[in-house]
Amino acid sequence: MYSLENQYVQLRVKPEGAELCSIRKNGIEYLWQADPLFWKRHSPVLFPIVGSLWEGEFRVEGKSYAMSQHGFARDSVFSLLSQSSDSICFRLCSDERTLKCFPYPFVLDISYTLKDSCIEVGWKVENPSDKEIYFQIGAHPAFFYPHFDAAQKERGYFAFDKKEGLECVRIAQKGCVDALKRYPLELDEEGLLPLSRDSFDEVDTLILQDSQLKEVTLLDKEKRPLLGLKFNAPVVGLWSPPGKNAPFICIEPWYGRCDSVGYTGDYKGRDWVNALPAHQSFEASYTIEIY
């Protein structure tokens, strides 16, 4: 486990999955601590797919490959690339193991940088090959509900940088979405999304795509801001385990998304896939701010 800290926040990151495992400020833990009774992860990086594949497989040039939800990076051991007083970076490279299940060579760097009370999470994907490659990448950080009380229904609120006209797609079958159905996001009179213990029991995940949002803030039950995420990702997922009355909520910026129901086309034709030309790189980041 590696640690970073400044006068505002303290982080802990593990090389397994290059996963952020702790965010503390003023003695308070903000990141979910991976109790397997609810969900065994903290903040996994999703790569080279986001979400589920239809029937658990994808196709490249006529050949089929099996892959479980969210890909293999979250269960891979990264090497430490660099560390300073306020930043740390890990690397995962394609090898014989990865090429058997994902036929594209890659170099994936994941970094964490402290800036006052903010954590900037950086991703860099390099294509070392002479051919174009395709991939998806996403975040899955889970945050404690403030002052969680399992006996109370109310949890808090989400505030967004847009207060009207928001719509989402939903999981329909086998972890995949019906991309043709859009559902309006029902906000209250202040433009907030109320969160309760059963908010996700029927919808599983709220998926907002087409760059509708660039900022999501978690508020407590008194509507005081606790933490926020800023991002440029075209898709963001909002999730808490359905039916478990879980003590946490996830805010997930994605450069990708699960398959549409029934999709059997080539991997490069998946919704929200990223194309990376030969010997080029892709860079993206998002920021977590603790208030």
Folded structure, characterized:
With 291 residues, this protein is mostly beta strands. 2% of the residues lie in helices and 45% in strands. The chain is built from one helix and 27 strands. Strand 8 and strand 9 form a beta hairpin. The longest helix has 6 residues, at 96-101.
List strands and helices in order, with pairings:
Layout: E1 2-5, E2 10-14, E3 19-25, E4 28-29, E5 45-46, E6 57-60, E7 63-66, E8 79-83, E9 87-93, H1 96-101, E10 107-115, E11 118-126, E12 133-135, E13 137-139, E14 142-144, E15 154-160, E16 167-168, E17 171-173, E18 176-177, E19 183-184, E20 192-196, E21 205-208, E22 215-219, E23 225-231, E24 235-239, E25 248-255, E26 274-276, E27 281-290
Antiparallel strand pairs: 1-2, 2-3, 3-4, 5-13, 6-7, 8-9, 9-10, 10-11, 11-27, 12-26, 13-25, 14-25, 15-20, 15-22, 16-19, 17-18, 21-24, 22-23, 23-27, 24-25
What sequence of helices (H) and strands (E) makes up the elements?
EEEEEEEEEHEEEEEEEEEEEEEEEEEE
User: What is the count of structural domains?
Assistant: 1
Total beta strand runs = 27
The low-confidence runs, each spanning 5 or more residues with pLDDT under 50, are: none
What's the CATH class, please?
A: Mainly Beta
Question: Strand share of the residues?
Answer: 35-45%
Question: Which of globular, elongated, flat, extended, rod-shaped describes the shape?
Answer: globular
**Level-2 CATH architecture:** Distorted Sandwich
* Broad structural category: mainly beta
